[in-house]
């Protein structure tokens, strides 16, 4: 299904007068289901029988924050202001990008959780996880773009929790203006769909006109 073509989106934005972008793509191993599953509780059945048990997403998050980001900052002309940095992921990468962004708000001021696998954990675990944050200072909180499609069975499976997450966060005081949820009923769980939505996501995150 190809990729997200974020390079072309960045080039287009730059040609229209915006600053340039540095795009960092992080590969995953054959153990992606574990690498990209945060350890915030017990993965519910039947997903705990599908390779998602014993998630090591905390270590992956530390790798991004403590290894990847310092390397990029040391070797490229970067802005280290949170509002100038985003983390974006899809599917298992969507739940992990959300987790990494929430754990590292001092680094990432923008998060996109695309077709995220939030349904791996029960609402009670999400409530406990989100309750540890202080959402009272709006200026320190990331802008978060949630997306889900409805074009195939997997997207329909992901939809209830993806739609509910901003509602749960809002109930805990997360400012509604810092979040948006987009649903496209014909978009399936693949890179073609995510490529189609990316030109909307990036300008929204960085508040580009």
> In which order are the strands of the major sheet placed?
1-2-3-4
Q: How much is the radius of gyration in Å? A: 16 Å
As a percent range, the share of helical residues equals 40-55%
Number of helices: 7
What is the H/E string? Answer: HHHEHEHEHEH
Strand content: 5-15%
Unreliable segments of 5+ consecutive residues: none
Q: What composes the largest sheet?
A: 4 strands, parallel
Structural class: alpha/beta
- What separation lies between the terminal Cα atoms? 29 Å
Spatial shape: globular
Overall pLDDT, averaged?
94
How many E-type strands?
Answer: 4
Please write out the topology.
Elements: H1 6-15, H2 32-35, H3 57-75, E1 86-90, H4 92-103, E2 110-114, H5 123-130, E3 143-149, H6 153-171, E4 179-184, H7 191-205
Parallel strand pairs: 1-2, 2-3, 3-4
Helix pairs in contact: 3-4
Task: Explain what this protein looks like in three dimensions.
- There is one protein chain.
- Helices cover 42% and strands 11% of the residues.
- With 209 residues, the protein is of the alpha/beta class.
- Strands 1-2-3-4 form a four-stranded parallel β-sheet, sandwiched between helices.
- It is globular.
- The protein starts with 5 loop residues before the first helix and ends with a helix.
Question: What is shown here, in short?
Answer:
The protein is an alpha/beta fold and 209 residues long.
Describe the structure using short key phrases.
209 residues; alpha/beta; four-stranded parallel β-sheet; 7 helices; globular
